[in-house]
Amino acid sequence: MNTNFTSHSSDEDARMRTPNPLSAIPQVIVLGIAAMACLSSGCTRWIANPAMAGGSLLGVNTPALTTTTDANGVQLVAAPAESANTVHQASQSERYVARQYPSTAPYVPPTTYVPPTNGVPATTNAPPSNYTTPPSLATPPSTYGNSAYGVSPAPSAPVNAPAIQYGAAPQYGAAPQYGATPQYGAAPPYTAPPQNVPPTTTYSPGQNYGTPIAPDATYAAPDPIFPGTTYSDPLSPPTNYVPMPTVREADLIINGYPARTGRIMLGGAVNSDAGVTGQITLDERNFDITRWPRSFQDMFSGTAFRGAGQTFRIEAAPGSDFDRYTINFADPNLFGYKPVSMSVSGFLVDRRFQDWDEERLGGRLSFGYRITPDLSVSAGISGQNVEISRPRVLGVAPLDAVLGDNELYSGTLSLKHDTRNSPIQSSEGHYFEFSFEQAFGDFDYSRFESEYRKYWLLSQRADGSGRQTLSYSTQIGYSGEETPIFENFFAGGYATIRGFDFRGAGPVDSGVSVGGRFKFLNTVEYMFPITADDAFKGVAFVDFGTVEPEAKLNSDSFRVSPGLGLRVAIPMLGPAPLAFDFAFPVNKADTDETQVFSFYMSLIR
Which stretches does the entry tag as region Disordered (predicted)? Predict the structure, then answer.
């Protein structure tokens, strides 16, 4: 695309900045009359470019261009001689043509110059401008001085432009030095060319750019170079030229407002394992423990204890089967923007099991390091007092040994890798966690646990809804010989093996579920949509595994329980769906307690 623009001299700019309205009135009147006369006669080019007409405009003498003929009979344009008045008038009417360099990748600038082969002598000190493979054009490329562009002349090209031999530079007397202002001689009269439409010129591969096949081929040239114009050969760009898009810089003013980071939540939950539970939560995700209030206004305006991106959470969850009260403070970036986190928490949990009551009071301190966005490691230490009371059956050795208060301390190391696309009803990715714990205090033992979940997206609609997902999960754990009964592994219920009562699939001693030190639990589940809005989804699953006193698998006590379920998403109840599952144990131990139907509301099963 050719872009024409006009450059004004400093004198003209000064006049434009300080115009004299009175002195401009006669010129405006004369200019208007001249413009109307020329528009009526179709001489619009004369108004835009008076130098081409060979006359004068508004009493200004403008020298005209003339044509000459070389030894081969080629018609050339000659420029008038340069004088003080001519240079001044040239500075008033300079026109520059901006054209795009060839930018077809890979672009290799020319390094050699091949003189034209049409018999016209080359200009002295001409810059290198050779292309071995010219572009394919419907019309011949325009010639600007001694340079050719692969772009057609601009639409504003004169209708009656002088015919110039393609590939030959206009002769201005002596050849000018490269980059210097050409000097001009006398101004001969201008003669219009006999031909207005350029003939079609073709190229052959390997032919020098700017050399037509037909020696006498002519074309309509662009605007002639006015006297006083200083230009260089734009066909030969710097050797480090790389075509790049235009880059513009702008100042941006961004007004940001903090989003709602604090909330108070009231809710509840119900499931077949823990009964009915209420919940009240105070959560602040932009907490600042160092921003103490400086005045009463800070206390009530919401500026105190805010602004550092920390998390502060207080939760109270009283229920029919257990009560839980927790307070937690976490800093996701402990040392500025370093990927180091810290968490401090305290808890009080009172749980009423079928065989005993258990109350835990303690705290935990942990540090984490995020290796990648998906991979993290953590280390922590915890201490708690565990009180066991109200046993249902006396005389069970593991239970009798822990009645009363028990001091339990432990250190934990864990590794997590999480690539799931969502923690709620995931459809792609996996979750892996491995942890090692060393306990001390009243009990001294080691424990390791590993959990792996994998999700496959089988199909979905074009808009991303209606996902059909296949998932597999497994849990493996082993604990040392001195593990107390309240720290054993248990199975049965919606979180482990469906189709069994809560803690009803495991070792039993005198009718008391004592759990085991080894667990191996697995689930294969297929989820599919039922309704178009994904409010109702169905699941088909198989839960299988076992909990044993020792690290071994026993076919007599290996549990297998297939089933079907329904998931109901109710937006007003939060992101966690309601789950209703029917499971039918097909293999179990003689002491197991079954429960066909289970229901719950939880983020993950």
Answer: 117-139
